[in-house]
Write a structure and sequence with these properties.
Helix content: 25-40%
Oligomer: single chain
Number of strands: 18
Number of domains: 2
Radius of gyration: 20 Å
Largest sheet: 10 strands, mixed
Number of helices: 9
């Protein structure tokens, strides 16, 4: 069986064709299509019709909530047993944007994580009962509360004199409750680094309020689209997510945050975040008055812009199982 969410995809989507072919070949295919994806409403209706004609079950999500989570679950029979495989991502299943957006995706056969994906699909496709995943966090049910709890953990650690740090990368930060908690954490001494490409309603560098908060925006060849959240003192330190820290995402959409559990991948993502924070060629730093200042290279800074450096690194990386 195959279960898939589609928020946006390209006009002649190879993915829709593959799902249709699987349904025609007798596979059990369920696709959650968001009909209210802005500017893509017409195309998504057409995709829904194509999939239904092929024999797939098409679900339009939960009434009153946009389904923005990026999930794929495949169940195969292998050696007489059922085996689950899942993909979770920060970006859409869209061929064109995959070439110009930066995103993270996780492919896994981890039993606990795959079971969580299955639970969320059950909830979306009409089981009705509230389901609590074991390791994933999903909106609008627990994500905002969990983020606030993790911010509180960092604040408590700082108050005890321990090292405390938050690193978060996203498109936009507008949720007033999250912003208040970040201010409180900053006052307690938590070091907070935010990489926010778009709207940011938080003001960094305010004396006695946000002295320990830095906000940068990276503008370059690729549109920065990934969402990553790191909390130094949380048992599960790093999550990737489909959600920005906005009230609409945290309270009015179906979103997921999924843990990166292997230390080697946590370290790799953190190393990439540090490169973003160190960049002075594509970086704009938010000032306390709400303006942005373009940073200029200093003597000894890395010679390449961060996107170029990461692109070169990825061109030579050898992939292994996660």
């Amino acid at each position: 069986s195959i279960k898939q969410t589609l928020y946006r995809t390209n006009e002649s989507s190879e993915l829709v064709e593959a799902l249709s072919e699987a349904a025609r070949n007798g596979k059990e295919v369920t696709v959650v299509i968001e009909l209210r994806a802005r500017f893509d409403e017409k195309e998504n209706l057409q995709f829904a019709s194509r999939l239904q004609e092929a024999g797939a079950v098409v679900v339009y999500g939960v009434m009153g909530y946009k389904t923005h989570a990026k999930m794929l679950l495949i169940v195969r029979r292998e050696g007489g047993k059922l085996k689950r495989y899942a993909h979770l991502g920060t970006g859409n299943y869209h061929r064109k944007t995959s070439l110009v957006y930066t995103d993270y995706g996780l492919m896994t056969c981890d039993e606990v994580l795959c079971a969580d994906v299955h639970k969320v699909f059950q909830q979306i496709t009409g089981m009705g009962k509230r389901i609590i995943p074991d390791v994933m966090i999903h909106a609008p049910f627990r994500l905002k509360k969990s983020l606030i709890r993790m911010i509180h953990q960092e604040r408590a650690a700082a108050q005890e004199g321990k090292s405390a740090r938050i690193v978060a990368k996203m498109n936009s930060l507008t949720d007033p409750d999250i912003i208040r908690e970040l201010y409180s954490a900053s006052r307690a001494g938590v070091k907070i680094d935010l990489i926010i490409r778009g709207i940011c309603c938080l003001k960094p560098g305010l004396k006695g309020v946000s002295d320990n908060i830095r906000v940068v925006s990276i503008i370059g060849r690729f549109l920065e689209h990934s969402r990553v959240f790191y909390f130094e003192n949380n048992p599960q330190q790093l999550y990737c997510s489909s959600a920005d820290w906005m009230e609409r995402n945290l309270m009015h959409r179906i979103e997921v945050a999924f843990p990166i559990q292997r230390k080697k991948w946590v370290n790799r993502i953190l190393e990439e975040m540090e490169l973003y924070l160190a960049d002075r060629r594509q970086s704009w730093e938010l000032q306390a008055d709400g303006s942005y200042r373009q940073l200029e290279p200093l003597e000894g800074d890395m010679s390449e812009a961060v996107q170029t450096r990461l692109l070169n690194q990825l061109a030579t990386v050898r992939y292994s199982s996660v």
